[in-house]
Amino acid sequence: MDAIRLSPPRRLSLPVDNRWGAGEMSVLDFGDPKRPVDLVFVHANGFNAMTYRTLLAPLSGTLRIWAPDLRGHGRTTLPTERQGRRGWSDHRDDLVALLDALDGPPVVLAGHSMGGTAALLAAAERPERVSELVLMDPVIWGRVTVALFQLPLFDRLASRIPLVKNALKRRAVFDSREQALAAYSGRGAFRGWPEMMIADYLADGLIETPEGFVLACAPEWEASNYAAQSHDPWRALGRVDRPVRILRAEAGSTCFPTRSPPGLSNVTVETVHGGTHFFPMLKADVARDALFDAAV
Fold it and tell me: Which is it for strands 21-30 and 65-68: parallel, antiparallel or unpaired?
């Protein structure tokens, strides 16, 4: 098991060319390359697929897993146009391209936070390519809030969202990876994270340049993801006719439903007791068990 935990994943490059621009999507490939992909896992805003290596690698003895870097994150080179951007249709369409590129039977589609919501939006477009969804504290606001996000007025208010303000203040350049590790360890969103997981995040989260080590996910793009909320996860839930398992954090959740929503019998909502929004990092065994149960 230790060898599996430490084994580095392979790195693939998937060409993507859609209305949001062309480029390469970086995908980490865990497990036996001779078997079909069993599980696709999508990361949260501001992070990257490598962040979840210690979560996913122990499953690779049984499952083959693809973990993509979303547009504007990690090693993916797809363009990041912020002007006029109102929702996560770009992330949705990039994941649709990934699903279309897969051979074999339908896969379990999973994700954390924004990654969970993007996975849901993609599954609504390609339900035949998905066997089940596992969403870890996805961003699903209440129905009224989602309706308000559709209004043009919200575009002028988005800059006042605290998450947007904080993202724009984020330090973007470090002298070294060690400096970044010291800056993040035990602080903010990284409080309580295992040091190995932070190091994995930085492995693909920093790009070496002549000016220093620069965040792969620019603060402006992270802020754009927080501000662009006009997509409708409730409509997507209504279109997906596959089992949807939502694991909701007990504290600081971004997921409005606290129980199975009326009229959506295929959707179950569970609370991770003692879990924060970052429970996949802090309670990895809970997240890993949910992925394993869905994929085997």
Answer: antiparallel
Alpha carbon distance 171, 215 (integer Å): 8
List, in sequence order, every beta strand (DSSP E) within 81-205. Answer: 107-112, 130-136, 173-174
The average confidence (pLDDT) of the chain is 95
pLDDT over threshold 80, residue 1: no
| Neighbour order of strands in the sheet with 173-174 | 173-174, 212-215, 206-209
Question: What is the number of other CB atoms lying within 10 angstroms of the CB of residue 152?
Answer: 8
Distance CA 236, CA 122 (A): 9
Using one digit for the tens of pLDDT, what is the confidence trace for 229-284?
A: 999 999 999 999 999 999 999 999 999 999 989 999 999 999 999 999 999 999 99
Q: Report if pTM > 0.70.
A: yes
Distance, CA of 56 to CA of 201 (rounded, Å): 14
The dihedral over CA atoms of 36, 23, 204, 182, expressed in degrees to the nearest 10, equals -150
Residue 255 has a CB neighbour count (10 Å cut-off) of: 23
Does residue 204 register a pLDDT over 50?
yes
CB neighbourhood size of 165 (10 A): 12
Output b/e per residue, 9-39; b: 16+ Cβ within 10 A.
beeeebebeeebeebebbbbbbbeeeeebbb
Cα distances (Å, whole numbers) of residue 1 to 58, 95, 97, 137: 7, 30, 33, 28
Provide the 8-state DSSP code for 255: B
From the number of C-beta atoms within 10 Å of its C-beta (0-12, 13-18, 19+), residue 1 rates as exposed
